[in-house]
Amino acid sequence: AWNTYLVSPPAACIVGASAHPIPKGDDVNGMVSSGSHDQFSADEIAQYRSETSGLENRVHLNSAGASLMPDVVLDAVVGHI
């Protein structure tokens, strides 16, 4: 299910349950709904995407339990092993 804080992504991004390229010219502003204080802002989404290398050019449609790790977590795990 799509995160309740976001409205549906552009149809070109949904092609199954895996990550797919974001169409050129798309930006996070088109995916942020407005009107509620508990939604992510476009700046927050951009920040979270920049902190997770796998999301730079992808929309990752997966549950939070299997989500991509932020760079700081990935660095800690790799540093541990």
Indicate the topology.
Blueprint lengths: L19 E2 L20 H9 L7 E2 L11 H10 L1
Antiparallel strand pairs: 1-2
Main β-sheet, spatial strand arrangement: 1-2
**Cα end-to-end separation:** 33 Å
Helix content: 10-25%
- How many helices does DSSP assign? 2
> Which shape, going by the Cα principal axes?
globular
The portion of residues forming beta strands comes to: under 5%
Rg is 14 Å
State the major sheet: 2 strands, antiparallel
Q: Which structural category fits the helices and strands?
A: mainly alpha
> What is the strand tally?
2
| Average of pLDDT | 68
List unreliable stretches of 5+ residues. 1-8, 11-18
Q: H/E series, N to C?
A: EHEH
What does this structure look like?
- The chain is mainly α and 81 residues long.
- Helix content is 23%, strand content 5%.
- The chain is built from 2 helices and 2 strands.
- The chain has a two-stranded antiparallel ribbon.
Short description:
The chain contains two helices and two strands, in the order E-H-E-H.
